[in-house]
Amino acid sequence: MEVRGTCKFILTQEGCKKGADCPFVHPRRATPSKSNPTKKKKKKGWCKLCEVEVTEGAREVHEQGKKHRQLVFEKETQQRNQQRLDDEKSERAIAELRKRKIKLQNRKRNAQAEIVKARTQRARTQAKERIIKQDTERRLQEDRLKEDEITECARRRKFIASICSRSRDDGETDLDSYDPFQQIPDEILLHLFSLLSYRDLCALSLVNSRWLRIMHDSNLWRYIIIPPP
To answer: Which of 219, 212, 211 lies closest to 181 in space, CA to CA?
Structure first.
């Protein structure tokens, strides 16, 4: 008769004393295996994505697994997104630098335009002041010429008056001797007539034959303006 069961003494420290005669089953003891110094242990690595230990032989199988490939895909997607964000950030930075450069160029161009405008305005002001100064000098010169002309006319009148008074003092009884204009030379009369207008000359030509003869001089009518009829 076969007895089924496990010997309860086999697991004790003393063991079963009956040995092979024991009707119960004696399971084999799990004796610690002696380490073989010649046998090398398998190296284990660490998968950073999955965060698990992987042996060298099973690494290829682990990398072909679904979880590892999913994590690799997510990491590559994240890297691409990060690269795209970095590229966009770099483009924005470059665009900002270009905008600043354009602003600086526009500011510099505006400053140069303001300088040119200020120089132009200064040149215009100086030209205007120069024109005003020249106009003032011309007016002063004209005033001096007028004063000289008036002085010359007064001197000539005084000279004519002296000639007339001298002839009167001589005591001549001739009628022509008392006419002051008869004592004036033709050159002086010609100069006096040149100061008159066209109508005055026409009226004075009817006085006597001497004045008519003087008025036929071509030098007298050179600067006379004849009014329209």
So the answer is: 211
Facing residues of 54 across strands? 45
Full domain range(s) for residue 228 = 185-229
In a domain, 11, yes or no: no
CA distance 75 to 61: 19
Q: Find all residues with CB under 8 Å of 42, minimum gap 6, and list them.
A: 55, 56, 57
Cβ contact 68:47 at 8 Å: yes
Query: Which residues are registered as beta bridge partners of 44?
Result: 55
> Which residue do the tokens 């007016």 mark?
139
Whether residue 197 lies inside any domain: the answer is yes
pTM of structure: 0.32
Q: How far apart are CA 163 and CA 156, in angstroms?
A: 10
Digit-coded pLDDT (tens) for 46-80? 777 777 777 776 777 777 777 778 888 888 898 99
What's the domain count of the chain?
1
Residue 210 lies in a domain: yes
| CATH code of residue 206 | 1.20.1280
